[in-house]
Design goal:
The chain contains ten helices and eight strands. The protein is globular and about 45 Å long. An eight-stranded parallel barrel has the order 1-2-3-4-5-6-7-8, surrounded by six helices. Helices cover 37% and strands 15% of the residues. α1 (22-31) runs parallel beside α2, α1 (22-31) runs parallel beside α10 (238-245) and α7 (140-151) packs parallel to α8 (179-196). The chain has helices at 22-31, 49-56, 81-87, 97-102, 107-119, 132-136, 140-151, 179-196, 217-221, 238-245; strands at residues 8-12, 39-43, 61-64, 91-94, 123-128, 161-165, 205-209, 228-231. The chain has a single domain (8-31, 42-232), classed as Aldolase class I (TIM Barrel, Alpha-Beta Barrel). The chain has 249 residues and is α/β, with parallel strands linked by helices. Bound molecules: 1,3-dihydroxyacetonephosphate (13P). Residues 12, 96, 166, 171-172, 209-212, 230-234 line the site of 1,3-dihydroxyacetonephosphate.
Length: 249
């Protein structure tokens, strides 16, 4: 079955960016019209979401990097999906490996956050990916399969949910899996999605993330079942991010 999927070129700024960085968002938004073949999204730190939304002026989407499962309450320092939406976000990333590692987030926690995102009307990007040790042990598909079945929110559709496959060992290291390895995991994720989400799974966007750069984007984005990128370091400047997104001119 062939389903035409509109790709998503997404940037995750992580804990980077001050108000001076809004110029990069402006530059990306201004160039977005030339990226006719994909949707464009930047997820700045929460402190910049409102300013980024203003700078984007509807030409690109702005998202959060995490949310709490509850809509409001006594949770000092946390941010709800409703608050992200109120600040202008239309997407939120959940289950990034840095959150799973730094904050001990389990699949159950990730699922609750993903369901909060849907409750607030955000599109959720659910991240999955194996560590180097797990890959060496031949557990990649088992780990990714477990994360998918454990973290997918109830009520997910091809419109309100995106999957990002980010091998932990490829994040920020300059290392990437071979196109054949990416094809294997993305093919597996597609198969699982079709199984878990009848009628929707074939059309869900599956992003690849981990050391995507202008120099390797074309090769990685050409892999079957790769429907865009989730870019960390190279999304911090308009020049590098647009060098990647221009694969979808
Ligand atoms: P890098 O592109 O810096 O490897 O980060 C990828 C990532 O974690 C995006 O969420």
């Amino acid at each position: 079955m062939t389903t035409k999927i509109r790709p998503l070129a997404a940037g995750n700024w992580k804990m980077n960016g001050l108000s001076a960085s809004i110029g990069e968002i402006k530059a990306i938004a201004q160039a977005a019209a030339q990226i006719g073949g994909a949707d464009v999204l930047i997820c700045p730190p929460a402190t910049l979401i409102a300013a980024a939304t203003a700078a984007a002026s509807g030409r690109i989407a702005i998202g959060g990097q995490d949310c709490h499962a509850k809509a409001s309450g006594a949770h000092t320092g946390d941010i709800s999906a409703e608050q992200l939406k109120d600040a202008g976000a239309t997407f939120v990333i959940v289950g990034h490996s840095e959150r799973r590692a730094d904050h001990g987030e389990s699949d159950e926690v990730v699922r609750a956050k993903a369901e909060a995102a849907l409750r607030a009307g955000l599109t959720v990007i659910v991240c999955v990916g194996e560590t180097h040790l797990q890959r060496e042990a031949g557990q990649t598909l088992a780990v990714v399969g477990g994360q998918l079945s454990g973290s997918l929110p109830h009520g997910a559709t091809a419109k309100n949910m995106v999957i990002a496959y980010e091998p932990v060992w490829a994040i920020g290291t300059g290392l990437t899996p071979t196109p054949a390895d990416v094809a294997e995991v993305h093919g597996f994720i597609r198969h699982e999605l079709v199984d878990l989400m009848p009628g929707e799974g074939a059309a869900v966007r599956i992003l690849y993330g981990g050391s995507v750069k202008p120099s390797n984007a074309a090769e990685l984005m050409a892999v079957e079942n790769v429907n865009g990128a989730l870019v960390g370091g190279a999304s911090l400047t308009a020049k590098d991010f647009l060098g990647i997104a221009s694969v979808y001119k």
